[in-house]
Amino acid sequence: MFFAAHPDDAELNCGGTILSLVNxxxxxxxxxxxxxxxxxxxNLKLRKKETDKATALLGIKFRENLKIADGNIEINLINKxxxxxxxxxxxPEIVFAPYPLDRHPDHINASNLIRESFFYAGLAKIKTGNxxxxxxxxxxxxxxxxxxxxxxIFDISKTFKKKLEVMQCYDSQFYNAExxxxxxxxxxxxxxxxxxxxxxxxxxxxxxxxxxxxYSDSDLKVESDTLFTL
Length: 230
Ligand SMILES: [Zn+2]
Fold this sequence. Notes:
The protein is of the alpha/beta class. It has one domain: Rossmann fold. The protein is 39% helix and 13% strand. The strands form two sheets. It has a four-stranded mixed β-sheet. α3 (77-90) crosses α4. The longest helix is centred in the last third of the chain and has 17 residues, at 189-205. The protein starts with a strand and ends with a helix. 37% of the residues are buried. Zinc ion binds at residues 5-6, 9, 104, 106-107.
């Protein structure tokens, strides 16, 4: 289960990993916390259309939007229960969340909200209707705009091209030479080039063409077979 503060965050930072997991037969879902209503470019109707197109191309099992206020992701009981409920509903083995240090405050707040809820989802005395308590085994953090310590890098060489196609579904948000809308951090040509450069950078570090980095604050288990594929 990939949590994202805004629709397109999961695709931008984990799109290659999501596509690779889907290709290997895993059940993958995305939970967006907000509708992205504060986005400088585009509007809600257009953003929804773009998200639906990207979701179809990713081939994931489900996508939900928790409709928490964009620009105001508060760590309160209502929002915690929204996250806890969706974790208990789908019972994912692994949860992915934004790394808790970033330039965008929504990513920081989303990260802390998800980390708390990840833990509380396992406590039986916190009630969410008929949903049974459940805590996933792992939470991994993905990088947004700020560098983070890296625990492992996912090889996305086989899915990087398709990741770019998925990102192009978000026509209003990323680089589009025809757009007359104001320029943002993620809509410039430089940012588009950085997406490729970043994937190549992390790929190079593990000896492949393209990669996406992740951070784990718990230690990762290795057995004799996996030792030789690290
Ligand atoms: Zn975002």
